Amino acid sequence: MLALRTAPLRAVRPAPSPADTFEEHSRYVAGLAFRLLGRDEEVDDLVQDVFLAAVRGLETLKEAGAVRGWLATLTVRLAGRRIRRKRIASFFGFGDEGPDEQVVSPEASPEQRVLLSQVYRVLEKIPVDQRLAWTLRFIEGEQLEVVAELCGCSLATAKRRIAAAQAVIEGAFDED
């Protein structure tokens, strides 16, 4: 007689509801979006786009604990698209280009406010992939491996993007 082996049953956690996901992660997504974009007026639209995509894909997540990282990846990708579209529109004379002055904490000194505003002005001019990687690394404080994962590239590519952005930023400040 053949004995059939069966795998033990594992408890499957249901995917979190869209409302719970929004409630738990909306502040994180908004903060990340704000720092990636450097502009306050676009954050709400990006957060809506992220959670709209999340509603469509939430059921596909295999691990409930992966929601935050997955939302971060969505935020980075959608922010990159938004920045690219904005640059194209600006090229054709639509919209204004430039960082939002609210990027800096109100507690920051005037010198810190000016410095960060200058950094975002430089970031507006570098390639989007470099901007995203540099922002994640130095403004968000993410580890290199996380930057690579969020940007959807290899670790070596993430390092190259960050180094290229850093060189442009340092060059902009060396000229002053």
Question: What's this entry about, in short?
Answer:
The protein has 176 residues and is mainly α.
Notable features of this structure?
176 residues, Rna Polymerase Sigma Factor, Chain: A
Q: What does this entry look like structurally?
A:
This protein has helices spanning 18-37, 43-57, 67-91, 110-123, 128-139, 144-151, 155-174. The protein has 176 residues and is mainly alpha-helical. The chain has two domains: 16-97, Rna Polymerase Sigma Factor, Chain: A; 101-176, Winged helix-like DNA-binding domain superfamily/Winged helix DNA-binding domain (Arc Repressor Mutant, subunit A, Orthogonal Bundle), CATH 1.10.10.10. The mean pLDDT is 83.
Name the CATH class of the largest domain.
Mainly Alpha
How large, in whole angstroms, is the Cα Rg?
20 Å
Q: Mind describing the biggest β-sheet?
A: none
**What is the CATH fold-level name of the largest domain?**
Rna Polymerase Sigma Factor, Chain: A
SSE order? HHHHHHH
Overall pLDDT confidence = 83
Outline, from the CA principal axes? Answer: globular
Structural category is mainly alpha
Q: Going by CATH, what is the homologous superfamily of the largest domain?
A: RNA polymerase sigma factor, region 2, helix turn helix motif
| Distinct helical segment count | 7
What is the number of beta strands?
A: 0
- Provide the number of structural domains: 2
End-to-end C-alpha gap: 84 Å
**Residues in β-strands, percent:** under 5%
Unreliable runs: none
CATH architecture of the largest domain: Orthogonal Bundle
Please bin the fraction of helical residues.
55-70%
